[in-house]
Amino acid sequence: MRTFVHLTQEERYHIYIMHKKNISLSEIAKDMGRNKSTISRELVRNRDLRGYRFRQAHVKAMQHHIDKPKAIKLNNELKSAITAKWSPEQVSGRLILKGKPSVNHETIETIFS
Questions:
Q1: Largest alpha-carbon pair distance within the chain?
Q2: Phi and psi (nearest 5°) for 86?
Q3: What long-range pairs does 105-113 form, CB within 8 A, spacing at least 24?
Q4: Among 11, 20, 57, 68, which residue carries the largest CB count within 10 Å?
Q5: CB 37 within 8 A of CB 46
Q6: How far apart are CA 18 and CA 29, in angstroms?
Q7: CA pair distance 3, 35, nearest whole angstrom
Q8: pLDDT for res 108
Q9: How far apart are CA 98 and CA 5, in angstroms?
Q10: Stated pTM of the model
């Protein structure tokens, strides 16, 4: 399975130039070693009234990365609230009921292993 790698500003420029030359999405993707859907999503997601512009697309993508919600880290307060008398799934549910930040049951399992 391939892992996702964000588009770079250079790749966005490459998309911009090739798209302006009316090269098909399939050809752009093949030339860049990317999936066609990646190119398509990029062009749709970052188009404005003036069309696709690579600089604005890159700024928008970087801002989106900054603004997205970050994962809650398992801190000492949460660790102390976790007890071995419940399953990891139950612990996760109880944290929610107590109004505490929720932690994935797989993360909780790491405490007891």
A1: 64
A2: -120, 160
A3: 107/74, 108/82, 111/74, 111/79, 111/82, 112/84, 112/88
A4: 57
A5: no
A6: 10
A7: 12
A8: 77
A9: 37
A10: 0.61
**Hey, what are 65's tokens?**
């990365």
Single-letter residue type at 113: S
How deeply is 95 buried, as exposed, middle or buried, from its count of CB atoms within 10 A (0-12, 13-18, 19+)? middle
- ∠ CA 41-68-35 to the nearest 5 degrees? 25
CA nearest to 19, candidates 8, 29, 34, 9? 29
Q: What is the identity of the amino acid at 84?
A: A
Token couple for 60: 């928008």
Q: Estimate the share of the chain in helix, then strand, then coil, as percent rounded to the nearest 5.
A: 60, 5, 35
Structure token pair of residue 109:
């399992």
The helix (H) or strand (E) run that includes residue 52 is strand 51-52
